[in-house]
Design a protein that fits this description.
Blueprint: H1 4-16, H2 19-26, H3 30-44, E1 49-50, E2 56-57, H4 59-81, E3 91-96, H5 98-102, H6 105-116, E4 119-124, H7 130-135, E5 141-144, E6 153-167, H8 169-175, H9 182-187, E7 190-192, H10 199-206, E8 215-217, H11 221-229, E9 235-238, H12 243-247, E10 252-253, E11 260-269, H13 274-284
Parallel strand pairs: 3-4, 3-5, 7-8
Antiparallel strand pairs: 1-2, 5-11, 6-9, 6-10, 6-11
Helix pairs in contact: 1-2, 1-3, 1-4, 2-3, 6-13
Length: 289
């Protein structure tokens, strides 16, 4: 039989990123948290955390994290059935890509969070790598571009987000007066969301260009748009995020008629309780275009 206080300590250490902060979250000393982790490792006969070069769960630790998060959700259902049990606001740790967070996400899940008193711990992650968070037991669910669920989970298709290669009219005239010529693509500064973002590379490949190009790194959706509006570069921006700027001509496509369609899937563990089911239903009603 697992001691869930030990699992609670493991979850806190991973989520808080260290023993001291985990102790603060649990109301324990750092040494007490360390002792609980050691007790868990002694009971299992193997480590649950790697301490160096960076703190991270081992494969066994990830399996325990997955189990602990699912138990937390199931316990919420039990508290609803037995109101005499003490109950805290349910907290869901979810990986969401920044562009969804900047556009449709809040409107989709806001009503459920208000009605059920849910609080979210959102991990902002690129849509191409969010599934890794779920596989590692770091989150209870995620949005990502992969249709293939991990073992024990399910994937719900939500639709597609349309990305356009946008810049200011002045930027387009300065860098691409004759269209998307190879030399222009080699020299014109782009804007890339982060080291895992491949949208810019996919766009350039669709134009037949596979060489190097200068770019700004900007891991924030709002900041990304602001850099483009400031004429600092061109980048792949969700159409739904800049409809007003497109209508007013503040941003224009450097390749009219071209777009990248990025599919989005909602991944969650099976048998994780009523709350995940409700959240899945709310997201299933979303219509992405």
């Amino acid at each position: 039989m697992l001691d869930y206080k030990l699992l609670e300590a493991l979850t806190a250490v991973v989520e808080c990123g260290g023993f001291e902060r985990a102790g603060e979250a649990l109301g324990l000393s750092q040494s007490a948290v360390s002792q609980r982790i050691r007790s868990l490792e002694v009971r299992l006969g193997q480590p649950v955390l790697v301490r160096t070069p960076a703190l991270a769960p081992t494969p066994v630790g990830r399996r325990l994290l997955n189990h602990a998060r699912r138990v937390q959700l199931l316990e919420r259902d039990l508290r609803q059935a037995l109101p005499t049990l003490t109950s805290e606001a349910p907290r869901l740790r979810i990986a969401v890509n920044a562009d969804s967070l900047a556009t449709w996400w809040a409107q989709a899940i806001g009503p459920l969070c208000r009605e059920e008193g849910v609080v979210l711990d959102l991990v902002v992650e690129d849509q191409d790598v969010g599934l890794r968070r779920l596989r590692d037991g770091d989150v209870a669910a995620c949005l990502c571009a992969s249709p293939q669920p991990v073992a024990g989970a399910r994937a719900l298709p939500l639709g597609r987000m349309s990305y356009l290669p946008l810049a200011t009219p002045a930027y387009r005239e300065r860098h691409f007066p004759e269209g998307l010529m190879e030399e222009a693509l080699r020299r014109a500064p782009a804007i890339v969301f982060g080291p895992h973002d491949q949208l810019q590379h996919r766009f350039l490949a669709s134009c037949g260009y596979h060489g190097p190009f200068p770019y700004h790194l900007c891991p924030a959706s709002e900041g990304f748009v602001r850099l483009a509006l400031a004429g600092m570069g061109y980048g792949m921006i969700p159409r739904m995020q800049v409809e007003r700027q497109l209508e007013q001509g503040e941003l224009v496509s450097i390749a009219p008629g071209q777009a990248l369609e990025v599919p989005l899937y909602w991944h969650s563990w099976r048998h994780s309780g009523k709350l995940i089911e409700q959240l899945t239903d709310a997201l299933g009603a979303v219509s992405l275009t």
